[in-house]
Structures are given as structure tokens and as C-alpha cells.
Design brief:
Rossmann fold; Quinone Oxidoreductase, Chain A, domain 1
């Protein structure tokens, strides 16, 4: 099958710089990208929303930013978001961010065209995209060279070009919007649990359990046969219990650690899977048993926290920081999806032109699961 007939222009939302919601601009005359050698061009069916979209836009990744990713920061940008690029103190791969940029990492769609060295028979294939572009010649934990929606354009558009090896054929009865809940969130969650070696019969505490990564952690921990203690806003208890969490602790509790210890006892947690950070970080290490594991992929409640090194040393703890999942981990998630072991959780879908509104709702953190944009 050859390349399909492509339009010259498309609709997309452009991020024009670091800052607040006003930096998102909906346009209907953006040039449709053409796939380069080794790439495929997708007609986007849906694109999931993630905290990384907010983190990048607000400049929260900047090393000089120490505040939590509050609703106010999400709407207006971090304190130094407006400073010029020449004044930046440096941040996670920020040196490769070029504006305008099309964000959106969690893409599902159909291959509309292929570049050189890609089998033309792939045109028409329904795919789910691994958003992490890697250089496999680099060391294992340092292979990420670009992230979809960050260092290269993503899926908040009608079309997006991605490396052919990042586009995985998917056969599923789920809709594109449902499938778009999995990339970024579920591969991050799976990598957190793989690295922490969560096993059958162990107890795991999941912070931020109602969000995209949090609900993924709950499901993936249950697949492993673990006992799940979910920590989230009190209003979300029923939905998390319906998802399968064995125990629930409201984050509003003045003594979250004490509430968890009342359930399982002191130093009885095997793994803490933390996507929130903030002041609970110190208590999370105290909850862990000897040989326990702490795995983190987020710090929206505050990135700068204290640590009692005696917890780390004298309990022989292990700590894992997760920026990106391996290709093998992403393939594992696809396997879970194909076998029906994972449940897509969509809070709401939005049209492309409503992305600014969608991000406004996202930073309120009233949702359970994912918000998805459908072009």
C-alpha cells in the first residue's frame, strides 16, 4: 500500500514559549510534516494528556524552580518561566526545546505515510506510539535523546511524524481515545515496578493513586499479586476501591504514615511507588521494611525534600528514579493491553481546539485516570 494523499495544512496547538495557559495557541494552518528516512507519519486518532505537558510548558523542570506544581503554577507558569532562554539556569534537556512546539506524548493513530527505508505496507496500520526516542548505543539508563511533545513535535495535532520503531501495531477493540490513556503513564508505572521488583504477596504504597500514573500503578501492582495501599484525595476513594485497591488512605489525613502503619504495621511496606514527592517523602522511607524499595517518577508536591540517611543506610533500602521506560517495558504494557488485563480510565475527552481548557482542568487534579484530546 502506498502513501495516502496528504493535505498541506493541518490543525494543531502550538506552544509558543514557557509560561501560562496563554502560551497555547490553536491554529488551523500548520504545515503537515513529511516523514523523514526511518519515520512514519500518523493521522492522530487521539492523544492522552500528561503532567509532562504541564511541567514543560510552565518551566517547572528548571533547576531553579523549587515550588510544587500547584494549580496556580499550572495556570500561570513557574516563578521564572518568563525569563529569557539566555538566562536559564538549566533544566532537564531544555537546551533542545525549540518553539513553537507541538506537545502531546501519548499518541494513537493510523499510519498515513512512510519515509525512506520503511515498508510501504505499513500504511493503514493502527499504531500506539512509544514517546521515547532512544539512542541504543548509549548506556542503558541514558538512552533517551528526545521525548515526543518535548524535544520533537507530538500529537496535539492532526498529524505527527515519529520514528518507525516507536510505532507499534496494535489490535484491540478499544477506541483510540481509550488506547491513548496508556502511553507515558503505564510504561512509566511499569518501569517503576520493574525496577523495584514488586512481587507476589508484597505490600506497595501508591501515592497520587488517582492520577494517570497512579491508576496505572494500582492495576499493574494487582497483576503482580501485591497488596495495594492507595493514597489520594478523599473524594476518590470509591473509584480507587472499585479499581481494586485493597486499602485507601486520604491524603488529607494529618498523619498519612500513621494511617498506613495502622493497616500493615511499622516498617512493613515492601515498595513505595511515589509520583507526588513533597513532605511525605521522608515518611515513605520510614514505612519501608528492611530491604525495601522506593521508586519515584514525580514530585509535583515539591521536589526539594529532606532525607534521614539512616533510613537508607541501616535498613539497606534501594531507591530508583524513573525518567523513561525501556523499550522492553513499553512492549510489556502493550502485551497487557492486548490481553485485556488493563482497564482504560478516561475522565473526559476534549477537542483539539479546547486544549487550553483541558489543561486548566488537568491542573485542578479533580480527575481519576486520564484526560484525552481527540483532534
Amino acid at each position: 500500500m502506498g502513501n495516502l494523499s496528504l493535505p498541506e495544512r493541518m490543525r494543531a496547538v502550538l506552544l509558543t514559549g514557557f509560561g501560562g495557559i496563554d502560551k497555547l495557541h490553536y491554529c488551523d494552518d500548520v504545515m503537515v510534516p513529511r516523514p523523514k528516512d526511518g519515520e512514519v507519519l500518523l493521522r492522530v486518532g487521539a492523544c492522552g494528556m500528561n503532567n509532562t505537558d504541564i511541567n514543560l510548558r510552565t518551566r517547572w523542570y528548571d533547576r531553579a524552580v523549587n515550588e510544587s506544581l500547584s494549580e496556580d503554577v499550572g495556570l500561570k507558569g513557574a516563578g521564572d518561566a518568563a525569563k529569557s532562554d539566555s538566562e536559564t539556569s538549566g533544566t532537564w534537556k531544555e537546551e533542545t526545546i525549540v518553539f513553537p512546539r507541538i506537545q502531546g506524548a501519548a499518541v494513537v493513530g493510523t499510519i498515513a505515510a512512510v519515509g525512506g527505508s520503511v515498508d510501504p505496507a505499513r500504511v493503514g496500520e493502527r499504531v500506539i506510539v512509544d514517546p521515547q526516542v532512544r539512542d541504543l548505543s548509549l548506556p542503558e539508563r541514558a538512552q533517551l535523546v528526545a521525548y515526543l511533545g518535548g524535544e520533537r513535535d507530538g500529537g496535539f495535532a492532526e498529524y505527527v511524524a515519529v520514528p518507525a520503531e516507536n510505532a507499534y501495531a496494535i489490535q484491540s477493540s478499544l477506541s483510540d481515545a481509550e488506547l491513548a490513556t496508556f502511553p507515558t503513564s503505564y510504561d512509566t508505572a511499569e518501569e517503576m515496578l520493574v525496577r523495584a521488583r514488586l512481587g507476589d504477596g508484597e505490600t506497595v504504597v501508591v501515592t497520587g493513586a488517582a492520577g494517570g500514573v497512579g491508576t496505572a500503578l494500582v492495576q499493574l501492582a494487582l497483576i503482580r499479586g501485591a497488596t495495594v495501599i492507595a493514597v489520594a484525595g478523599a473524594a476518590k476513594e470509591d473509584r480507587l476501591r472499585q479499581l481494586g485497591a485493597h486499602h485507601f488512605v486520604a491524603r488529607e489525613n494529618l498523619d498519612v504514615r500513621g494511617a498506613i502503619e495502622a493497616i500493615v504495621g511499622e516498617r512493613a511496606v515492601h515498595v513505595v511507588a511515589d509520583v507526588v514527592g513533597g513532605p511525605f517523602f521522608t515518611d515513605s522511607l520510614k514505612l519501608l521494611c528492611r530491604g525495601g524499595r522506593y521508586s519515584t517518577a514525580g514530585a509535583i508536591a515539591g521536589p526539594i525534600q529532606s532525607i534521614d540517611l539512616r533510613d537508607l543506610i541501616y535498613k539497606d533500602l534501594e531507591m530508583f528514579g524513573i525518567t523513561s521506560a525501556s523499550a522492553e517495558t513499553f512492549k510489556s504494557v502493550i502485551g497487557y493491553v492486548a490481553s485485556g488485563q488493563l482497564k482504560p480510565l478516561i475522565e473526559k475527552t476534549y477537542q483539539l481546539e479546547d486544549l487550553a481548557l483541558a489543561q486548566t482542568e488537568l491542573v485542578k487534579r479533580n480527575h481519576v485516570g486520564k484526560m484525552v484530546v481527540v483532534p
